[in-house]
């Protein structure tokens, strides 16, 4: 068993624990009983969704076959306020028998769990918030904070990015906020586009075809040089312009655009700020797509 650290060395102990998990080839097997077990389940979910493969092992099922899920490549993280829950015994024995690293968090540094652990985080002495000072409240809050700190530390060590987060959260509101523009934009023939020498009639026909409320104006190299929208068309036809006039005379010069790898939520923010509903997507000044507010809202981007 490795040497223990006092509370004064919490930071060093925590870093050693993070280092063990970083180097494990398998998974983090998180376990606990009672309220600690509930915290352990939440900790498992947070670790798994942030790049650290983890699984919850219920102590009551461990001795009835579920110990088989623990492999020599794994590490066990055990939560126990008292450090004396009898249900944890089979897991401790299994770890010792097969040399599986045992990490622990407990409030009793002289408890069975603490003494058996290779690395143990000592919880601070806290008074439970309930009137009888018995119901796990403050102590479980401390456990929860430890779990979140562990997950965040591992995220930083792994360089876990927003892109990685989106891979594990493709659905729901969180997933929608992490969608990239390229995932929602229209491309190729669906992008309304006319050349710089097009007429007002050409631009109107192209806008009608694409039904996005506007069209891009591009030069011969495919670079975005302007935009012509429904609003521009209404302002134009109220005058006495001829539909054969070049659209370049009425287009918006240097229109707003966005890159394909920007967040869709950023595209929606720009639309709200500039009071527009259509953004063109460019890569190195070349037009490659378009994205409409309706698509963003339909995808749940907010």
Summarize the structure in short:
By secondary structure, the protein is α/β, with parallel strands linked by helices. The chain folds into two domains: 7-160, Rossmann fold, CATH 3.40.50; 181-298, CBS-domain.
Description:
The protein has helices at residues 10-23, 35-49, 59-62, 89-97, 112-116, 138-158, 162-168, 172-177, 200-210, 230-237, 264-274, 293-298, and strands at residues 28-32, 54-57, 75-79, 102-106, 119-122, 186-187, 193-195, 214-218, 224-229, 252-253, 257-258, 278-283, 286-292. It is of the alpha/beta class. It has a five-stranded parallel sheet, sandwiched between helices. Strands 6-13-12-11 form a four-stranded mixed sheet. A four-stranded mixed sheet has the order 7-8-9-10. The longest helix is centred in the middle third of the chain and has 21 residues, at 138-158. The two termini are 51 Å apart. Residues 185-244, 251-302 form the CBS domain.
Record keyword descriptors for this entry.
302 residues, four-stranded mixed sheet, 12 helices, CBS-domain, alpha/beta, Rossmann fold, disordered N terminus, 13 strands
